[in-house]
Structure formats: structure tokens, C-alpha cells
Amino acid sequence: MTGDGTRAVRAGLPEAEPHEPTLPGPVFAAHYHLPGDATGPYTYGRDANPTWTLLERAITELESPDSGAETIVFASGMGAISAVLLSRLRQGDTAVLPSDAYQLLPALIERLEGYGVTVRTAPTANDAQLAALDDSVKLLWLETPSNPGLDVCDIRRLADAAHARGALVAVDNTLATPLGQRPLELGADFSVASGTKALTGHGDVLLGYVTCRDPESAASVRAWRKTVGAIPGPMEAWLAHRSLATLQLRIDRQSVTALALAEALTGRPEITGLRHPGLPDDPAHRLAAAQMRGGRFGCVVSFTLPDKKHAERFLTGLRLVDNATSFGGVRSTAERRGRWGGDAVPEGFIRFSVGVEDPDDLIADVLRALDGARTPADG
Ligand SMILES: *Cc1c(COP(=O)(O)O)cnc(C)c1O
């Protein structure tokens, strides 16, 4: 047994070979030398690539170190999510999904319904409603903590309820990352994530992955990737693998600073709905503390300012924080989430992603921008 930091720096590396690099560079190949029959690990570039293989091993070691799990990497988080939903569900099946899931899930639900799948939704914060399954349910989809609402559901309890009905369970693990939460250990069948966010952490790569508990599911997700061609480029896969070495450093720093920022915002009169799962009095804290790992509650803090204009003044006043979407990067970002129209949030709702800046600098910048945003600029 090694610690998370040790595992992260070595994850997926090949055996040491004299005069070979520690992490081999990206393999750019559309096809491979293939004498005779079309067998072997590498035949055509849409099916497999050695750079993916190393990254897939690395993610498996982080998501599920002690089981026979398998990971399949994708071109984006949405590529990974749709691979599970569209490969597992057939006409006549029922699926249950969170009503507050990632903003593109409703578009995917509409498509599933068009294919004859019945979809029921329930809020992440309502475990009882999510757990109310009947025998027609084939798949239960969870997202915890949820983006951007930061609600948490009980993976173990819901996985037990789903398995009792013969349904499979998938968890979107994007916000937590495998260092913050291991859904397969909590009973889920799939851990699915966008690697675009905290996993890679530099805001320069789009990537997704699915970690599957059993080989049969893995084979079906792998076949789906080949069929639809939602494959990552070798450069992206290599950049992602390179970034994993610093995952523990980044996640630990970002989690600690996110909690410090949330504490600094507590009691500000202009702020309502302050959420961070690490705050002791957050509605999600007890459950998050029980199922998340190492006090890593993630880098996102969300809160609501009185209105759209107030929120825009705040964002404009920030000097160390980019007004940009996405989260989990080394540079802090914040945005008025309502501008996308996909989430049920108030106009003044801010999703703040804490980077790796010095905590004092960042918190001072936020408090100064909040002070400056209190009243509209004169003139
Ligand atoms: C960003 C995100 C996705 C989508 O990932 P992409 O890499 O942008 O396709 C899915 N789920 C959650 C929770 C996300 O934050």
C-alpha cells in the first residue's frame, strides 16, 4: 500500500528500461505494422494507442487500485458520459438521472427519450427519491458532488438499492477526482469523468474517461468508442498522463484553499447560498466527509450575489481570477453560471474554482473585489 502522492507520480508508468524515458512520449500513429491476421494490441489508431494504454492504466490505479477494473479514455467528458448512457440503454429501458446534473445532460436525456428510453429525474440532494427504483430501471446515474450546486448523495446506499433491482450504477466523479472519491469502492459499476477539469488541471486539454468494474462492461464501452470514434489525440493523452504526477499536490492545495475561501466568505451580508462540502455546517458536509477521501472536498465554492449586475461587478473587479468557465485549473477562475442558461441557478450565482495561488493573495483579491462590487460605480 502506498500513499496517494506516491501512487500519483508512478501511476501507469512502464517498467524501467535502460535508456528509455520514464514516461514514453506520445505515439502518433494512424496504423501499426500488421503482418498476417488483424490481431494483437495495436492494429488501427481508432481502436488502441500505446499512449492511451499507459494513461488508462494510470487512471485505473487511481480510481480502483485493488480490483480488476479497466479504464477507457475518451476525447472529452461528454464522450465518456454518452458512451455509458448510449451503450447501456436500449429501447424500453428506464434510467434514473439527477435533475441537477451537468448542464449538457438534459440534451442527452432528450436524445435517449427519442430512442425509446424512459428517463426519470430526481435531485442529487434527495437520496430517497433517487433510490425509489422499480425493476424496469437498468441504470442509475449519479453526480456527486454535483456541478455547480455542490450537493452530495450517498453512493453506497444508492448502489445497494440499484443492485437489489438489477440496475447498474454510474457516478460522475469529475469534481472529486479519483483522489477525492473512489466510486467503485463505494459500490458503483462505472466511474465516469471529465479529465478536462481538475484531473489534468492546466486548462489546456479536453479529455474524458470511464472506469468499469467488470471486463464485460469495459468491452462494451471500448467497442462504443471504436464505433463512434470519440478518441483522444495522443498528445492530449500524454499531457493528461504527465499532469497526473502533480494531482495530489494540486488537489490538496486547492481543497485547503477552497475551504479557507469559503470560511472567509461566511457571514458576508451580500452573499447567500454559500456552498462548499468542506464547510462543517454545509448541508452536504456529513455525507461528503464520510464518502470522500482525505478531506479533499474539491476546488469549487459556489455562492449567490444579489443580482446579475452585482455579480458582474464582482467578476470584473477580480485581478487574480479569470472570468472563464470550467474548473479545477491551477489558475483560479470564476463565472456567473446563469450566463449559459443550462443550470437552475439565480442570475447572481457564482461558481468559483480555486487554483494553486497563495491562499492569502487569492482570498484578499476576492474580498477586495466583493467590497468594490457593493455599490454600482458612480457616473
Ligand atoms: C465539464 C463536465 C462534464 C463534461 O466534460 P467535457 O470534458 O467538457 O466534455 C461532465 N460532467 C461534469 C460534472 C463536468 O463538470
From TrEMBL:
Q: Where is this region: Disordered?
A: 1-21
The GO terms describing molecular function are: lyase activity
Q: Which cofactor does it need?
A: pyridoxal 5'-phosphate
Write the Enzyme Commission number(s) for this entry.
4.4.1.1
Keywords linked to the UniProt accession: Lyase, Pyridoxal phosphate
Q: Identify which top EC class this enzyme belongs to.
A: lyase
The entry assigns this protein to a family as follows:
Belongs to the trans-sulfuration enzymes family.
> What is the protein named?
Cystathionine gamma-lyase
* UniProt source species: Streptomyces coffeae
Q: What is the lineage of its organism?
A: Bacteria, Bacillati, Actinomycetota, Actinomycetes, Kitasatosporales
